[in-house]
Design a protein that fits this description.
It is a single chain. By secondary structure, the chain is α/β, with parallel strands linked by helices. It has one domain: Acetylglutamate kinase-like (Carbamate kinase), CATH 3.40.1160.10. The protein is built from 9 helices and 14 strands. Strands 5-8-2-1-11-13-14-12 form an 8-stranded mixed beta sheet, sandwiched between helices. It has a 4-stranded mixed beta sheet with strand order 7-6-9-10. A hairpin with an 8-residue loop joins strand 6 and strand 7. Helix 3 crosses helix 4, helix 6 packs parallel to helix 8 and helix 7 packs antiparallel against helix 8.
Length: 271
């Protein structure tokens, strides 16, 4: 595809922030093709990607056992080095290369680049894990306005103006980053691709529609566990500004495209 056909005038177009979980990308996955289709239709797309499976595999090779607290990875110094190398390097560049190969326009970066994600440590029990306190939306807007999809690896930089110490990198949960970016950009939609059909109740049945007050209730009751907790908390954060959040099964062919165009695919959450 030539440059003229891929360059998009997207002024005033809808902005969609999408979280891609590493577990959903496989040989039969259509997510990247859906992204390129949405880009060609004129949507402004921001992607945040995970890579948890690959990180865990690398940690196990190094003799480090992955550990989680309420769905968040505990990150010591050795783990942080693996997380940074795998997410910002291997996974990020593979996603960008694959998107370019099918005619998309994408730029890969981490939250460190351009001071995109400024963070602080809020729970020492998690180690080098950050909570986002500022998103450099100017950088994202420049990339979007140039017609590219920013593909963001969730590694940020510690914001400590009181210290002259060397800059500290921090691991950030990808779902959390997605909610922060969606809110900061006042996105029209935020979509989380995962490897389940949506949020499920205590009987294992999919919940098709939720309000944020139900999200709080389900988390407090213990009905929601593990990796679904940060997803729902990210939805809560984004929905202070964003109209809708969807958690869908990224393994279903065409799921992202259909959801972005309005179809309710998994669990839809509204304020």
């Amino acid at each position: 595809m030539d440059k003229k056909s891929t360059t998009i005038d997207n002024a005033g177009a809808e902005t969609i922030v999408i979280k891609i979980g590493g577990s959903t990308l496989g040989d039969h996955d259509t997510t990247l093709r859906d992204l390129v289709s949405l880009q060609r239709e004129g949507y402004r797309i921001v992607v945040v990607h995970g890579g948890g499976k690959v990180i865990s595999q690398w940690m196990e090779r190094e003799g480090t056992l992955p550990r989680f607290i309420e769905g968040l990875r505990v990150t010591d110094q050795k783990s942080l080095e693996i997380v940074t190398a795998v997410l910002s390097g291997l996974v990020n560049k593979q996603l960008v290369a694959a998107t370019l190969a099918i005619g998309g326009m994408a730029v890969g970066l981490s939250g460190v680049d351009g001071n995109l994600l400024q963070c602080r440590i809020v729970n020492p029990d998690l180690g080098f894990v950050g909570e986002v306190i500022r998103v450099n939306t100017d950088l994202l807007e420049q990339i979007l306005n140039a017609g590219y999809i920013p593909m963001v690896a969730p590694v940020g930089i510690h914001s400590n103006k009181e210290s002259d110490a060397d800059a500290m990198l921090l691991n950030i949960n990808g779902d959390t980053v997605t909610g922060d970016i969606a809110r900061s950009l006042s996105a029209s939609k935020v979509i989380f691709l995962t490897d389940v059909e949506g949020v499920k109740d205590s009987n294992g049945r999919k919940i098709s529609f939720m309000k944020t007050r139900q999200v709080r209730m389900f988390i407090r009751s213990g009905m929601i566990k593990g990796g679904m907790i940060p997803k729902l908390e990210a939805c809560q954060k984004a929905l202070t500004v964003v109209p809708t959040a969807d958690i869908i099964d990224g393994r279903v062919p065409g799921a992202l495209l259909r959801c972005a165009q309005g179809e309710a695919m998994g669990t839809r959450i509204q304020a």
